[in-house]
Specification:
Number of helices: 15
Distance between the termini: 32 Å
Structural class: alpha+beta
Order of helices and strands: HHEEHEEHEEHEEEHEHEEHEHHHHHHH
Largest sheet: 8 strands, mixed
């Protein structure tokens, strides 16, 4: 063991012989701990917020969607989900089981009011599970059962606007070609995702209900929704599928015209907004590192000033400036480690509590969530701690140079 480390381990972080740390040390440890708490909170909250918003967007919009088109490129009404199309999708190996969706525009009417909706006919799968996880009243119906053929699920915004509750049976009017068709539907459940742009628009029913309104067969759909196996490869998966469909069409195997859209394009506004949050995190991290850095520099200066006589005696005994600097760097590292331990314990405890009980609320109309989301990613936490420790080590090197300017003769007589 070097004499620098031996002396640093024997020295107490106080200005006198009491066991209580000096005020400067307490302030330094507190400053580092609070800075780390803020950095952990900012990182976990932004990661959680981005994850929650992405999950909501993916719940409404599939990663990749196949739409029908006419030969001139204009939108067509339906597509036929043939075995050829199914095999093309399956052979790419990029997607989970395809989900057929049938949309019907209509009006939901009560005795005193009405509201436009888009009935989204779905089967069990990603979209079904997403809506089922956001039910606030009633029970998500099993759309595959005959008893649920006329059951629909509407949003809380629609229910509030029309004054409806589960069990009500309003009339619905749908536009199918040049005809208007009437159905008496039952409100089986009410959902609320806090995504007002989507909630005000969509109501959910069975595929059979939507197809029946349009008088279409069991293989027809207005779109085919695909979920990529890897979120990072949504664009690549879409391009691969598009190439496979074009090749199959060129060989005469695939008939009909199709267009493909990606959620990264259809929901670009939300993803661009989420990217801006990363800038906020960088600013917060920079500010907190600056605050803890200034606190640490002040602490090291105080440690040096409180031990001027000790520095003079060590120099008189032949200790080098470099060796004495190491002693005070080791002392400052003690302060950093104490502050980091306290910051991690407090910060992670707060994040665990928020993640478990959602104590801190949010305005859902402004943030699309009614609570502050948290995601604890240990990779990010470890990287943050390593980064803070390394930066702290670099910061304390600068003020330690003052030791070289201390005169042994004067410092021994220093009071």
């Amino acid at each position: 063991m070097s004499y620098e480390l031996f002396i640093a381990r024997r020295l107490r972080l106080n200005a006198d012989n009491s066991r209580r740390p000096s005020v400067s040390i307490i302030i330094a440890v507190t400053g580092i701990a609070l800075s780390l708490v803020v950095m952990i909170a900012a990182m976990c909250i932004v990661l959680g917020f981005k994850e929650e918003i992405r999950n909501k967007v993916y719940g409404f919009d599939a990663h990749v969607t196949i739409h029908p088109a006419n030969n001139d490129g204009s939108a067509a009404e339906f597509l036929e989900y043939t075995d050829i199309l199914d095999s093309i999708i399956s052979n790419t190996g990029c997607f989970e089981r395809p989900e057929l969706v049938f949309r019907q525009s209509g009006i939901l009417k009560t005795d005193s009011d009405f509201q436009a909706i888009v009935l989204k006919g779905i089967d069990k799968g990603r979209g079904y599970d997403f809506i089922a996880s956001n039910i606030t009243e009633g029970v998500m119906p099993d759309f595959s059962a005959d008893s649920a053929k006329n059951d629909i699920v509407i949003s809380e915004a629609t229910a509030r606007s029309l004054g409806m509750h589960t069990g009500d049976k309003p009339f619905a009017y749908f536009f199918s070609g040049d005809k208007v068709k009437t159905r008496r539907l039952k409100i089986a459940a009410i959902y609320d995702t806090h995504f007002s742009d989507y909630d005000k628009l969509y109501a959910y029913g069975s595929l059979g209900l939507a197809r029946g309104i349009a008088d279409s067969d069991s293989l027809s759909a207005t779109s085919v929704e695909l979920t990529s196996h890897a979120l990072a490869n949504i664009t690549e998966s879409g391009i691969m599928l598009q190439d496979a469909m074009m090749t199959s069409a060129y060989m005469g195997k695939l008939t009909g015209a199709y267009t493909l859209t990606s959620v990264l394009d259809s929901a670009m506004m939300y993803f661009n907004w989420l990217e801006l949050l990363d800038t906020n995190v960088v600013v917060i991290l920079a500010l907190m590192i600056a605050v803890s850095g200034f606190t640490l520099i002040s602490c090291l200066f105080i440690l040096i000033l409180e031990r001027i006589r000790m520095i003079g005696i060590l120099k008189a005994l032949g200790a080098s400036n470099t060796g004495i600097r190491r002693i005070f760097i080791y002392l400052a590292q003690k302060v950093v480690i104490w502050g980091m331990i306290a910051g991690n314990v407090i910060g992670l405890a707060l994040m665990f509590v928020q993640n478990r009980w959602h104590i801190l609320p949010l305005d859902a109309d402004a943030y699309y969530l009614n609570f502050v989301p948290v995601r604890i990613d240990w990779g990010y936490i470890i990287s943050l701690n390593v980064g803070v420790f390394m930066l702290s080590l670099l910061i304390i090197l600068l003020p330690s140079h003052i030791i070289a300017k201390i005169n042994p003769c004067k410092s021994i007589r220093y009071e």
